[in-house]
Input
Amino acid sequence: MAFVFDDCRNALLSAGTQIDSALAMVGGTKSDYWLTTIATTLNIPLMVPKVGDFGAALGAARLGMMATTDVRIEIATMPSIAKTIHPDAALHQAFTDTHARDHAAFATLKDL
Output
């Protein structure tokens, strides 16, 4: 799953998006191990909100409000952050190498 996030991040980077950190949301935020795995794979810090489940539905509702009313970006505020999970620098290269092997295996298997 972390490699899927990495593929998405790489697509955004190739389109010119700069990603310095990310906001971790809902169920996955309950596991520091999972968050560290994602942060290490992406090589960016993940911020975890203090309270509430901030997810896609809230984001979609905010975008809908911005599209249909005079409300603008001021409603898209960052929640208070409880903690930040940083990448494990000692493991990042191993994760990168494993992801490359994953891509190579997929390329080999997709034509079978």
Q: What stands out?
A: The first strand starts at residue 22 and ends at 23. Residues 3 and 69 are 38 Å apart (CA to CA). The helical segments are 2-14, 32-42, 56-68, 89-109.
